[in-house]
Design brief:
alpha/beta; 17 helices; single chain; about 15% strand; six-stranded mixed sheet; about 375 residues
């Protein structure tokens, strides 16, 4: 096998980061250090954490710069500092083996929304053609397959590899539900606080075990998560699946040319802006209606609030409330939310007659297993 370099991209908190943003960055550093040591222990030639200043540069430009550190002829494992916090040595070895292959190929934790990607040496060379404006790592496997013609495999059947620390809530879910525990996160959890959220996590865990109850999951959940709920939850499940691939959808990841037959079968389509069924209800009734509407549908609810924000403001996160505000909403701290719409939404979730959690992809995906483990 060939040699493999590992690069872990760590977004440093910006100068306006508050307590929650700093706590999330601390948790990511802990996970990144564990990954660095873990990849070296299984034979990676090098593993380093690259801290990235919040300078506004798009992912494509930053990756091309980081890629220059990969020695010629070596494969690459690329991941974010919050990715794969539950990965085992066997999981890391699968990425290293894929990156060490002599033929073009790639392995992702999920090819449709990646947080970690292994590229063999021939595939690494293709990164020189990655557009500077490429928006993020989520769409990288699609670009490799569609534009680069690289065979891409993934590990999306492994739920633990879908966990990503995108919010302090995700840190809390991992700290409460991971087995074995990651004790190094205890200090971060203490800084976050979040007793209000902790009690709701426990209450939703009780609903999962109650055959007379019903759970609502809304947002970027998956058929795999729904299948797990059908097999493991004793309650009934109501699922609203929408806007999967929200972050991975970019025209830059799609081949611009194809055969005439391909074009006839798949003519160009107008890109639809993100829309949400639940978001349409809130557009009609206002954000304060969230709690009452959810209570009409279930005995507990997990809601992907990023889909609601995209429905209201578009897919560009620069137009959303700032990260610190989103993190406060995830922890149900309406007083810490400085956006009027999101504050009303958060207060409605907090005051709901049923336990409600707001969060992102991890919450409505692999985080459900962590909730069940509490």
């Amino acid at each position: 096998m060939g040699a493999v370099d590992v690069i872990i991209l760590h977004p440093s908190p910006g100068p306006d980061a508050g307590l929650l943003g700093s706590a999330l960055a601390d948790a990511r550093v802990i996970v990144a250090d564990r990954q660095r040591a873990g990849f070296l222990a299984i034979g990676a030639a090098s593993a380093r954490v690259v801290s990235e200043a919040p300078d506004g540069r798009p992912f494509g430009a930053r990756l091309r710069e980081a890629r220059t550190a990969v020695r010629p002829g070596r494969g690459l494992v690329l991941l974010g500092s919050g990715a794969l916090p539950l990965a085992t040595a066997a999981d890391r070895r699968r990425f290293v083996v894929a990156a060490a292959a002599a033929t073009p190929g790639a392995l992702a934790n999920n090819r449709y929304s990646a947080d970690a990607v292994a590229l063999s040496a021939p595939a690494v060379d293709l990164l020189d053609g990655l557009p500077d404006a490429f928006p993020g790592d989520n769409a990288l496997p699609r670009w490799l397959a569609e534009v680069g013609g690289v065979p891409v495999r993934d590990l999306r059947r492994s739920w633990r590899l879908a966990v990503d620390l995108d919010s302090p809530l995700d840190v809390l879910l991992v700290a409460m539900g991971a087995r074995p525990r990651i004790g190094a996160l205890d200090g971060v959890v203490k800084a976050i606080g979040a007793e209000r959220v902790r009690s709701r996590i426990e209450a939703i865990g009780d609903v999962l075990g109650d055959p007379r109850a019903e759970l609502l999951v809304a947002g970027r959940t998956s058929t795999a998560t729904i299948g797990w709920l059908e097999s493991h939850a004793r309650c009934r499940v109501r699922a609203v699946v929408e806007e999967r691939g929200l972050r991975a959808s970019t025209d830059l990841a799609v081949a611009s040319a194809g055969s005439a037959a391909t074009v006839r079968r798949h003519p160009p389509r107008r890109r639809r802006p993100p829309r949400s069924v639940l978001g349409m209800v809130l557009e009609r009734d206002g954000p304060a209606a969230l709690g009452p509407r959810l209570a009409e549908l279930a005995d507990a609810a997990l809601v992907d609030s990023r889909v609601l924000l995209a429905d209201r403001l578009g897919v560009d996160e620069a137009l959303w409330p700032r990260p610190e505000t989103r993190y406060a909403s995830d922890l149900l701290d309406a007083d810490g939310v400085d956006d009027a719409w999101l504050a009303a939404l958060t207060r409605s979730a907090t005051d709901a007659a049923i336990p409600v959690l707001l969060g992102g992809h991890t919450l409505v995906g692999p985080g459900l297993r962590l909730v069940a483990a509490t």
